[in-house]
Amino acid sequence: MQANPCGHEWVVTITQQEEEPELDQALVDAVAGLGEFSRFAIYVNKFFKPGLPAQLINKDTVIEKLSEHEVNELIDKVSRNKIRISHNYGCIYTYVPVYYTGNVVGVLVIESNQELTERCSMLAIYMLNIYANQLALLHKSRLDPLTELLNRQTFDKKVIDIAAQAAHGVTHSDVNHRHWYLAMIDIDHFKRVNDNYGHVIGDEVILLVAQLLKNNFRFEDYVFRYGGEEFAILFQATDECDARNVLNRFRACVAEYPFPQVGSLTVSCGFLPICEFEMVASLVQKADNALYHSKNMGRNRITAYCELDIQDNKHNDDSIELF
To answer: What would the mean pLDDT of 141-159 be, rounded to a whole number?
Structure first.
C-alpha cells in the first residue's frame, strides 16, 4: 500500500505523542480524516489484558454508545473474522479490530451509508495498529521494570491530575461519591529479609507483595512502586472508614501470606484523602508521617493522617524567629 500525501503526517503525529490523551486525540483526528464516513466510535482496552473493559476514546461520538458486554462481544467477533460488516435500518456498520502483538485489544465502529473502499479499510487498520503500538510503548514507559506496577514518574503525574481535579471541586468520581485517597505502604523489617536471605529473595518478596496489591485493588485504582520496598496507591473510597477497610483487607492478606523461605511478613501504611490541591511532595510527606506513626506504634497497622497530633510551628509569645 502506497502512502497518500496525508499518510506521513498522521503517522508522525501519532508516533510523536508522549501523553495518552494527546495520543487518543491524534487517533480520532486521523480516523476522522479518512473522509469516507463521519460517524464512528473507538473502543480500546488500554490495559492490554483480556477481561478488562475497553474504554470509549471519542466520548463525543454521535453514534449510540455500546455497553461493556456489547463491546466485548464485538472484540471477540472481530478476533475471529477480522473486519466485520453488517446492515441495519439502511445503515452499514463496519467493525475494524485494533490489533497488538496478534491480539485484538479494541474495535473501531463505523456507521456509514455505503461500504468503505478497500483502501479506506486498510488505512483504518494501519492507523489503529500504529496507535496500539504507541499506546503500548507509553504503557511500558510508565511501569516499574521489576514489579510491572506503575513507576514513580507516573505517580507524580497522576497525583497532580487528581489534586487539580480537587482544586476545581471535582472531589468524587461517580454517582456513589467515591473520593480519592493516597496511601503509602512499606514492608516491615525488609532489611532483615535482604540481610538474612539475600537480594534475590528480597526481590521475590517485592514481586509477591506487588501481586497482592494488584489482586486487592480495582483496575480503576492506581498502584505504584514508589521506591525500594515502599509502594503508593491512589484509590477511591466513599469515606475514611471505607478507605481504612480497603487498606486493612490488604494488610491482613499480606500478614496471612506464606512467603517462600521467609515465612510471614507484614506491612505498615499511612493514608489521607486528596481534598484540595497540594504539591505532590506535601501529600507524600503527610502520608509518610502517618506511615511512620504505624511503624512507631508496632508496625502491621494502618494510620490515617488525621489521627496524628501535629501542631503548627507557631509560638505563643511575641518573640520573632528570624531563622
So the answer is: 94
188 and 280 within one domain: yes
Parent domain of 236: 152-307
Specify whether 229 is catalytic.
yes
Total structural domains within the chain: 2
Q: Which of 18, 36, 204, 229 is catalytic?
A: 229
More confident residue, 216 or 176: 216
> Among all chains, which residue has been given the C-alpha cell 504505624?
294
Instruction: Look at 87 and 309; give whichever has higher pLDDT.
Output: 87
The average pLDDT across 80-97 equals: 88
- Residues in Cβ contact with 177 at an 8 Å cutoff, skipping those fewer than 6 apart: 238
Q: With CA atoms as reference, report the closest residue to 224 among 206, 245, 239, 242.
A: 206
Residue 63's alpha-carbon distances to 40, 46, 56, 77, 114, in angstroms, are: 7, 22, 12, 20, 16
Stretch 149-174: mean pLDDT, rounded? 81
- Evaluate whether 193 touches 304 at the Cβ level (below 8 Å): no
CA distances from 242 to 14, 136, 164, 179 (A): 41, 34, 23, 10
